Amino acid sequence: MDTIWDIQQPDPDRVQQLCQQLDLDPLAAHLLVNRGIATVDAARRFLDPALSAIKAPPSITDIETAAARTARALINTEKILIFGDYDVDGVTGTAVLLDFIGQAGGRVAHYIPHRRREGYGLKAGHIDAVAVPGKFALIITVDCGISSHEAVEAANRRGIDVIITDHHMPDGPLPPALAVVNPQREDCPACLEHLAGVGMAFYFLIQLRTHLRQTGFWQGRREPNLKHLCDLVALGTVADMVPLVKENRTFAQTGLRLMAQNPRPGLLALMDASRVDACHIEADDISFRLAPRLNAAGRMAHADLAVDLLTATDAPTAQRLARKLDALNRTRQETERDIVAQIIDRLERDPQAQSRPAILIRDTHWHEGVLGIAAARLVRRYAKPVILVTGRETLARGSARSLPGIDIFALLQACADLLHAFGGHAMAAGLTIAIDQWDAFRRRFEAYLEAQTAPADFIPHLAIDMEIALDAIDQRLFDTLALLRPFGQGVPEPVFMARDVEVVRQQTVGGKHRRLQLRSPDGIRRRIFPAIEFNVADEGRLPNRLRKVAFHVRRHNWNGSQGHQLHIVATET
């Protein structure tokens, strides 16, 4: 399906105001206004994020109750169980709590459920199988727990206190926990809904440290430096694809600097295994190199491998774990490619399936851990919602992904009575369904989707920040991009567009990518720009002239030398 290229037109008065009052380059002001950062105060906070300026924790409902109870556990040497999720957000949040509470002298351990055997979240079975035998007096959840009513009730019956730290939307009444620290709850006035789970855990630690200061706990003890945990907070925040605005931008920028200056052993080993230049690490390196390897632990084996890596204190252990995660990620990639190829083949042999408003497919042998990634790839290819589930007995589990403007969570809510369980947000969700309900679910889902959408909703759009000539790419542009980093969800990396571009050279690399040399045929300097276009194995060669090219401009390191490279987003011939 053809993509509509939307060239953004920012309010010129807003651009001029930012230029004049903040002494900004017009290009920087143009890009800020395109991202909705259109006032002087908002731009100033965006350009100069500082940990000292983040919102104060006491505005979060229940956070002081949580801090006081945890402080009591530390003082009385009670056993504390950190219960985390198996994705990068949950793993980093778990590591952050383990680090701080361990430094405070706490008797602390962690538990992360096995993705396929146990599924998501704290369950009643975990109380009897883990918490009671381990003689834990306090459970603190990370990135989960907001829907764990039965588990909290079971813990209460056993005399075990539960503190929930989470960032997911409650699906009804809150669990009867001692404290529910979640900015999404209706009675929380903090306005911190943008935080990831690890960000919520970090806020909890800020309040805990303050409470311990007020009680004199740190006298004779070394107080942990919370800033040193921002590398893990940045890792989980970027990986969870929450908007990189406000506090999240502060965490990301602070953490990326820490990773570049003094990386912990686990991150240094992971960057080495991922072929990331530690001195120039950026948010993209987290999204596309580090996070997939950490997620591979929970998808293909057990997330404890990722926790062990992030908490490793010596280089040999960290390197061994990083190599293991790298190998698991290669297995994950192969499994994912196989599933996507199967589905594409199935769709191409079935024209009727291609004409449906969504792709809903069930299989008995797929690996559940990679279905979300596979669904996301299919959404990009077919520009329609995708739901993939797998299961051989009575229940099937899987993932749903959507495209901007089509709320997959709302669609699942319309079918809630046909689902065993579901959760997520507008663009991504997980679900469990009884196999005998699959056909009825598919019919209702498609009917509701067609009733709520129009054909225009399925046409992909590409936002173009600015049209420029290739010869206009200069140091000023590089400096502006450096000023605005890190980019991510909510603050997208700038996309530029050039017209009438000559393809000087092209070759396939890695079996599926296209390396290019481009230039403007009418350019004064006739400069040649190196470029790369990813995942184009089945698209054939480009013509020698392109009507339009959309691209990012990124730093490129090759054989010890540094330069810049165009990353092709789209072309039009």
What does the model show?
It is a single chain. This protein has 3 domains: 116 residues, OB fold (Dihydrolipoamide Acetyltransferase, E2P), CATH 2.40.50.460; 206 residues, inorganic pyrophosphatase (n-terminal core); 109 residues, Diaminopimelate Epimerase, Chain A, domain 1. It has 19 helices and 18 strands. It has a 5-stranded parallel beta sheet, with helices on both faces. Strand 2, helix 5 and strand 3 form a beta-alpha-beta unit. Helix 5 crosses helix 13 and helix 9 packs across helix 12. It is globular and about 75 Å long.
Structure, briefly:
By secondary structure, the chain is of the alpha/beta class. The protein is 41% helix and 20% strand.
Provide the CATH topology of the largest domain: inorganic pyrophosphatase (n-terminal core)
What is the CATH architecture assignment of the largest domain?
A: Alpha-Beta Complex
| Biggest sheet statistics | 5 strands, parallel
Q: Report Rg.
A: 25 Å
What's the pLDDT, averaged over the residues?
93
Question: What is the total tally of β strands?
Answer: 18
Roughly what fraction of the amino acids lie in strands? 15-25%
Distance separating the two termini: 15 Å
Give me the side-by-side strand order of the main sheet: 3-2-4-5-6
Q: CATH class of the largest domain, please?
A: Alpha Beta
- How helix-rich are the residues, as a percent range? 40-55%
Unreliably modeled segments: none
